[in-house]
Each structure stands twice: as C-alpha cells, then as structure tokens.
C-alpha cells in the first residue's frame, strides 16, 4: 500500500468528495453540517493549503490550514487547521497523525508560529489526536466560540 499526500485546490473533485464526507459525519454526530464560512480562496498560497492523502491512488484523508490571525500563545502569526478527516475504511492506519504532521510542516514552512483549531466536544477521537500531538486547550475563538460544544486548541510550531 502506498501513501502520497498531495496539495490540491479546495475545489478539486477529490477534496470536495472528502469535504462532503466530513460534512456527512458532522450531520451524523451533531445533527447538522459545519456552517463555518469557508471559501476556496482561504486555502490558496500563501494564505493556506489543502491536502489530500491518497492510499493506492484512492482519496483517503484530508487536512488543511488557513491563515487565522488569532492572538494565541503570545502571537497572532497563527494558522488554523481545517477539514482534518480520514474516511472510515482507512482509519486505524496512522493517516490522521501523518496528515497532521504534514499540515503543521506546511504552515511552519510558510512562516506561521502557532497552529490553532476548533473541534466539537463530541469528537473525542480528534481531541485525543490533537492532545497526543502537543495541542493544549485555549480560550474559545472563531465562528463557534459561543457554542457550548466547541473545543479550541493550539500548539507552538
């Protein structure tokens, strides 16, 4: 089995298939999709990047970052993780950890000093992944900052 992570535009067909699947997951878990305003331009260089991981040429995971500007950990040179997702049939193979490392490296190479993220409190798998990789809880921010289920985390790069 071969794994390749490729940078693709947000509106690339493979990216959109994965975005649709993660939205289906949100509906299953929360009863509604993610309404955070997201447009393709947010993931164009140098403001962001979107990645798809292919297992044997089949889209299996996604991960992205976009410029955040949130004041966290003493800086506003922050990038926000978005659209981290692994299809169920590829889970348990370390793809999320590899994608997270790839997303972080890309943001660091672009000059960002901190990664931030928001996730839902019912996404225990995601919270565990981020905590195991050095992310800590921070004050709520962003589109869902007033939502009771929001979990906001950050990590210095």
Structure description:
The structure is a single chain. This protein has 157 residues and is α+β, with helices and mostly antiparallel strands. It contains three helices and seven strands. A seven-stranded mixed β-sheet has the order 1-2-3-4-5-7-6, with helices on both faces. The longest helix has 18 residues, at 13-30. The mean pLDDT is 95.
Q: Indicate the radius of gyration in whole angstroms.
A: 14 Å
Shape: globular
Q: What is the rounded distance between the termini?
A: 30 Å
Report the average pLDDT across residues.
Answer: 95
Largest sheet: 7 strands, mixed
Order of helices and strands: EHEEEHEHEE
- Structural class computed from helices and strand pairing: alpha+beta
Count of runs of 4 or more consecutive helical residues: 3
| Proportion of beta-strand residues | 25-35%
- The helix content is 25-40%
Q: Please mark out the parts with pLDDT under 50 across 5 or more consecutive residues, or reply none.
A: none
Number of strands: 7
Widest sheet: strand ordering: 1-2-3-4-5-7-6
